[in-house]
Design goal:
The structure is a homodimer of 437-residue chains. With 437 residues, chain A is an alpha/beta fold. The first copy, chain A, has nine helices and 18 strands. Chain A has a domain of 221 residues: Dihydrodipicolinate Reductase, domain 2 (2-Layer Sandwich), CATH 3.30.360. The longest helix of chain A has 20 residues. At the A-B interface, strand 7, strand 9, strand 12, strand 13 and strand 15 of A face strand 7, strand 9, strand 12, strand 13 and strand 15 of B. Chains A, B: InterPro entries: Gal80p-like_C, Gfo/Idh/MocA-like_OxRdtase_N, Gfo/Idh/MocA_oxidoreduct, NAD(P)-bd_dom_sf.
Chain lengths: 437, 437
């Protein structure tokens, strides 16, 4: 059996909260403000922001003042920030395309900072696989405990699906179908969205973002990586129509070099399970299907996870389960005699799991921070808890690390290569740790 | 505009009905008895059975007597049957694995039969592609008008979907997802089903049957063939559990060499449309999805075709349409001025198309016979109707021929090769007519 899967953090003030240094937090806008900041506010006994880095000094000072970060010191110089000893964890919440140029020198400078223990990097983990491999290796050599923002793993729906399967409630998985709608990459582009999102190489394409998050969740739920894969990638909409804030066409188009459709299929190592996954980039015009669907079929039951938005890591979902639960089958008691089967034995159960007011955008990031605190403070009193771990893998406990992220980065790279080579690829090698570490 | 898509056959007795010679019709059982016989009975002004071939003379005579085929003569010798002049059409309704050895000599013998015009062959068109190519060429050299039983093309749901798309009611197609459940190929096997169904090479595997029919319908609806494809084929259930007539396990297993799962994806030539298609072989345990789904997404609407059974060619379906109809957009009138747009312009329409009592097993075969009669008698008075055509292609009128069947046979062959080669294949060549004809 596992440890209690719920976080055990308390609201009792903590003498030594985790001191956080932020890159990418701004009082005015951005993902860090929207999600990291509320998570830390809610976990004020576990985390305190002690440093804010911004090249623009006024911005750093304003952010500290406006967000009332009374314990924080502003930095405009990456070296001073990286060596600032009053920091346990550095959060790099900038776009994927800027991560490499910040994190590599940061890791080098931070060698002189013996207090620094954690490095938290936003998905998509650099612009491409080559950068991600280098960042992974540099962080491993530096000896930091890393965290990657594949926060969908903390979604209660993903956890519940994983639990149902792990506890054998659908039997052996024999088939999986996934379908997502990635709304950004369609015929229209809001003038508010930066062009970089639609240029290849920035790590913001639908394979890297929508597929990356989704396939990480699928592997996490099923507790298996892929053995072989094939992909076809389409850019059928090379020009997008610009629309204004009300959605009205502005009479101009803008080029798009990122894909608008991914067809992916492959099989899982465990059980040789066929998996089909399609990602459609367009406004959710699908009238008769949901914009996010994972269908998992097993020998004794099925799980369906559905959502109105195509992004499982940040949208609210519904989980449907139907199957014959294994705990209705008699289990040997302590004296070796089988326990009497319950009256429900062999009957089919149905479960609809939905948290009506769950705010997934905040909730999943919040739960990721909770799991960092659970680890740091060992709030669950796990005996012999190691001081560091390389990857979360398929554990319920813990949090995804750069190694977990690297596996997805390598899968994404294989997806692009499969498409360009026109080949079905063996991807078992993507689990290998970098040879030089 | 098209000719009226409905059949124009009448019930007025016809002086010269199409004289049909049957191979595979038996009074006691079989697909011909179940579907061809009722179709011909309903179309008694258009068709009359004049010959029945069976190696077993008693069976031939009994079939004629028991089915009251008063105009029919029994044959036990293929040569005499093939040269019998009182026949316009020969129907070969035997299993795929027996078709080649019957049809090849039949075609040779029939050179001496100047009355024979039509050859109707059951899907799956021989055991494999090589045989199908030979049969196609032999029939072409013989100069017969061929018919292949891809009768799903005649399904009213398929016709309606094709019509909605053809008349531009969903705009440009940009994405297609197909999911079918092929119940036979799962964990359990009824002892009533012959072993041959589960042995590779008989043309009865789920790629050749379920996928073959379904992908033919998809191409027919969208009016496009594929440009490239990739497939992964699984046989994860190499032993099936035998069950009795009540579905109870008999304590024995039987080997299965045919696949139980197909993952297919590719893109259509027209519009480079991404298509995903998964065929799962197992009892329909999917609780939260239908056993047959085609989702077609377009720029201005969507079509969903659903069914409870995974076989579109012989199960009743439901069609859902939502979109902006093109006939609500102003059209130039005769004098060149635009007609006033209707009040419905730009509004979204919804259609649920379902014939509650439609019997698809009989209905689609019946409609196929209707279309043969429509052609033979030119019941629609189409001017300059050719006396023969090589293929139906994507026409509403007519019926699928061996060339249409050969294209599907070649696609199926490419599916198997894609899987074994681990390659994404260009399949544009499958449209080429055999070079020797």
């Amino acid at each position: 059996m596992y440890h209690n899967k719920r976080s055990a953090v308390s609201t009792v003030p903590n003498e030594d909260p985790i001191r956080v240094g932020f890159i990418g937090l701004s009082f005015s806008k951005g993902w860090a403000l929207k999600t990291h900041r509320p998570a830390i506010l809610q976990l004020s006994s576990q985390f305190v922001i002690t440093a804010v880095y911004d090249e623009d000094e006024k911005m750093a000072i304003d952010t500290i003042e406006r967000l009332k970060l009374v314990h924080a010191k502003p930095f405009t110089d990456l070296e001073s920030f990286s060596t600032f000893e009053n920091v346990d964890m550095i959060v790099v919440s900038v776009q994927a395309s800027q991560q490499y140029e910040i994190v590599m020198p940061l890791l080098e400078f931070s060698r002189r900072n013996s207090n620094l223990k954690y490095l938290f990097i936003e998905w998509a983990f650099a612009s491409n696989l080559q950068q991600a491999e280098k960042v992974y290796q540099a962080a491993a050599i530096r000896g930091l405990q890393t965290i990657i923002a594949l926060q969908g793993r903390k979604s209660p729906y993903i956890q519940r699906a994983k639990e149902l399967i792990h506890e054998n409630n659908i039997g052996e998985i024999n088939s999986i179908e996934i379908s997502c709608n990635a709304c950004w990459y369609g015929y229209e582009r809001s003038r508010k969205v930066a062009n970089g999102m639609f240029e290849m190489g920035n790590g913001l394409d639908l394979v890297t973002t929508t597929f990356g998050h989704t396939i990480d969740l699928l592997q996490y739920i099923t507790e298996s990586y892929f053995s072989k894969i094939n992909a076809l990638i389409f850019n059928n909409i090379p020009e997008q129509m610009l629309v204004d804030d009300l959605g009205n066409p502005m009479g101009r188009t803008s080029p798009k070099t990122v894909p608008d459709h991914l067809l992916f299929h492959g099989c899982l190592q465990r059980g040789n399970v066929p998996v089909s996954c399609t990602i459609k980039g367009d406004k959710p015009t699908k009238k008769f299907t949901k914009n996010f669907i994972i269908d998992i079929h097993g020998t004794r039951g099925d799980i369906k996870i559905e959502g109105d938005a195509g992004f499982a890591e940040m949208s609210n979902l519904v989980l449907y389960y139907s199957g014959i639960r294994v705990n209705d089958i008699p289990i040997a008691s302590d004296n070796g005699h089988p326990v009497q089967p319950s009256l429900d034995q062999g009957k089919e159960f149905m479960e609809v799991y939905h948290l009506r007011n769950y705010d997934a955008v905040h909730g999943n990031v919040f739960r990721l921070y909770q799991s960092i605190a659970d680890f740091h403070f060992n709030t669950k009193n796990i005996p012999n808890l190691p001081s560091q771990f390389v990857m979360q893998g398929f554990e319920f406990e813990g949090f995804p690390t750069l190694m977990d992220g690297l596996i997805i980065r390598r899968l994404i790279d294989s997806v692009y290569r499969s498409n360009s080579m026109g080949a079905t690829l063996d991807v078992t090698h993507i689990l290998q740790f970098p040879s030089s570490v």
